[in-house]
Automatic annotation (TrEMBL):
Residues 1-126 form the AMIN-like domain. InterPro entries: AMIN-like. It comes from Citricoccus parietis. This is AMIN-like domain-containing protein.
Amino acid sequence: MRTARHTCYDRMVIDLRYKVKGYDVRYASVHREGSGQYVPLAGAADLRIIVKSPAYNTSGRPTYAPASWANAKNVSGYSTFRQVAYAGSFEGQTTFGLGVRARLPFRAFILDGPGTGSRLVVDVAHRW
C-alpha cells in the first residue's frame, strides 16, 4: 500500500499480486476484521476500504505486493489524508481505514498490472 500527493487530490494505492475480485469504498466507520473492534482514525471523516481479497493465501504467502501494507503510512503534510490504517483480513476480505479532513468527493477504480497483478486506487479530492 502506498500514498501520494497530487495537485487536486491525495491518492492511496493497494497493490495486489493478482486481479482484484471486488471492492467497497465508502464513508463509514472502520472496524477490525474478525473482532469488529472500532478503529478510531484521525480526521473529520472515515473512509472504509474493503478489498475482496485475503491478505494471505492458503500457503501463508502475502497476496499484497509489497507486504509492507501492515505498517503505518506517514501522511503528514497531505492536503486531505490524516491517517491510513490496516484493519485486518478475515474470511476473504481485507479492510483499510483512511482518515480524511472532511467528507470530500472521492473515486475508486482498478488498474491492471504490474504483470498479472492489479491495483486498487482511491483518490480523495482536496476540495469540493
